[in-house]
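User: Thanks for the earlier help. One more: DNA-binding protein. Can you show the sequence and predicted structure together?

Assistant: Of course, both are below.
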Amino acid sequence: MLEQIIDLITRRNANDANCEWIESEAARKLLGISPKTWQNYRDQRLIPFSQIGRKIYVNRADLDAFLRQHQIPSRK
């Protein structure tokens, strides 16, 4: 029973981290791309984002999904 509770808490904490909204510059730095590349990604709608006034926000889960889509598997 205790192991199930720990598992539930661990999964919930992981889900909460994916609901985090981060600012545009932090997202760009996390991806390691230039401001122009980041602008191109937004223009092409490669990563979903929200804009309030001049501020742009990206959901952490969307960034993780983008990285997974572009993952190159290792050779075995």
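User: Great, one quick takeaway?

Assistant: The two ends are 39 Å apart (CA to CA).
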